[in-house]
Amino acid sequence: MMAVAKDASNLEEMAQDLAQRASEQLKSVFLDLLNSGVDVGGKLLQLECSLSGLRDSNGASSSRMRIASMELDTQVSPPRISWSPFDRQTALTGLKHVPPRKRRKLTDSVRERAPGPDQELNKNVLTSQPGSGVDTALRKELTLHGQPTPRSTVEKFIDGIWQSIYSGIKLDPTEVIEQWQAIESSGQPRLLTDTETGSAVRSTSVAQTDFGRMNVLTRKVSQTSRTCRSLEVIVQAHWAQCFDDRVVELTVSLPRENAKKQTIVEACMDFSWSEKELRNKMGVWRGYHDIALSGGWAALVFAGMGLYRFCKYRSSFASSTFETLKARKHRFEVAADTLHPRWRQLLGIIGGPTERKYIGHPHDWVVASPGDEAVPLPETYHQWDKNFSYTHLDEANIDADVWGALDPRTVSSPPPDGVYTCDTCGEQQSDDPPANHCSCFPNLYGSVKAGPAPVQVFRTPDGKNNGLVACCTFESGAAIGEFVGQITSGLANLDVMVGQTDSTTYQIWQGREGNHTRFINHSCHPNSEYERFVWLGTQRIVLVSKGVRAEEEITVDYSDVYWQDLDKVCLCGHAECRYDKRSRILPIAPAPT
Ligand SMILES: C[S@@+](CC[C@H](N)C(=O)[O-])C[C@H]1O[C@@H](n2cnc3c(N)ncnc32)[C@H](O)[C@@H]1O
């Protein structure tokens, strides 16, 4: 496959687009070849797509760029197809160098069953003592499980929806109204400060500078523009439905073809467009309509930048695409309703329902089987505890009855100069982002908070009750969350994490309060692991991805210590499961605590 670009500035965008489409087609070319029965003589075949630019931005002729490549190895049985994705860095500038990074990984047990009265509390699973089973983990940023992760166009489209729902930009129609009122009252565009709109004001003096004010204005205009764009696609999708309704209306007195023609003429008159222009737009708007119909309005409203292209080229418009979107409809709605409480008001413009369906914290809802509505979290524990409730915490809660004013996780007293240094990277740590230079887990510590982790509590189909599913990819080395709960001691016969510093042993219990890490199930082949980390002199337990794909269940190894005295069967389903054959087979996992 060869494509030619006239202008080098378009090359990269064109390459990305072609790479996406080519990668989907190359595989079927190879599969056709194999199915046709052609004898390729036990060879290694390579199929490559490249893009050539006639000249670069300086007018010089530019070289060929490899955008996709696939290998067919017929030396093995069955033949193996491997794929190299388009990588901008590789294609344009050579391989990006990612420096290895030292990490403290917990190689021993992480979760424990709190010992009963006859057991000793002596399993020091988390310890900051040197030489205690700590080793180094290297960060792999570009791969998952060491493999490139090809994503189909539909998967990328869905990724875009999740990223937009979880991005810091709130989709809120009141922003548009406030901006409009400000323009009306002063007769010209005016900067609304955060105080005027009731939002949190940044405490630093930067907020008072021209730059700070410009940041606020730019954010507001971006938000406004995004909201208007959402209104636009809602209206256009609804227009496609109204078009069909009008055709049906006219069909009462006209043959169907004539009715359609007349509807087009009516629309061309109102839009002042030629029929060709209208048909072009109609194709795209019908795409918006089909997305809203299958994935719900949230799928359309939060679709990322690729929406127009997705609907214009329609290369993925197959029934399977719409089934895929339909299966995620309620998942999108749970996230959209809880993170953007006012987004449904946008539907008011077409007379659609504006009432929120899912109220509360994103993890107050358990997403269920594809197509089913989400259920309130407490309901999923009623069979064990009719009064179940769960409080979502951002920070650990220290049990004052046990510890008083002391935080047992403290590993060092405040340095005389007040400056904490990271044990891992050696850089200065601070809760004040401009003063912080440690970027070990930037989504958890020291940076401006990026919002909640893109994960959902889901109903497992195999008897583990709930679990945690990733909405977006977590690259290997990325933090999924801190193990947050009640910092206590002396609990018995409950699931706890045991932590230990040089001087103290403590328990973290997530039974009634904590965060999303509480819902993570065990697997004998997990895709995440716990690492200990010290932030501002306090020990933290961080769940770190080993390469979690979007839509995959997040799992961790609870360890032998957890399972050894437990009368439970492991339901992880892995071929090398260590605890699937226990003395007693239970139909459903006992009450998670
Ligand atoms: C921390 S909770 C995990 C979330 C839990 N599934 C829930 O619904 O709340 C730990 C409990 O989940 C269940 N569980 C986790 N992993 C499991 C596995 N691989 N096999 C069986 N049960 C598991 C056990 O009941 C365990 O006590």
UniProtKB/TrEMBL annotation:
Q: Which domain of life is it from?
A: Eukaryota
Q: Which Pfam families match?
A: SET (PF00856)
Q: Where is this region: Disordered?
A: 93-133
Amino acid composition bias (Polar residues), ranges on this chain = 122-131
**The SET domain, residue ranges:** 453-559
Composition bias (Basic and acidic residues) maps to: 106-115
| Record-linked InterPro entries | Class_V-like_SAM-MTase, SET_dom, SET_dom_sf
Q: Which residues cross the membrane?
A: none
- This chain belongs to the protein called SET domain-containing protein
Q: Which species does the entry assign this protein to?
A: Friedmanniomyces endolithicus
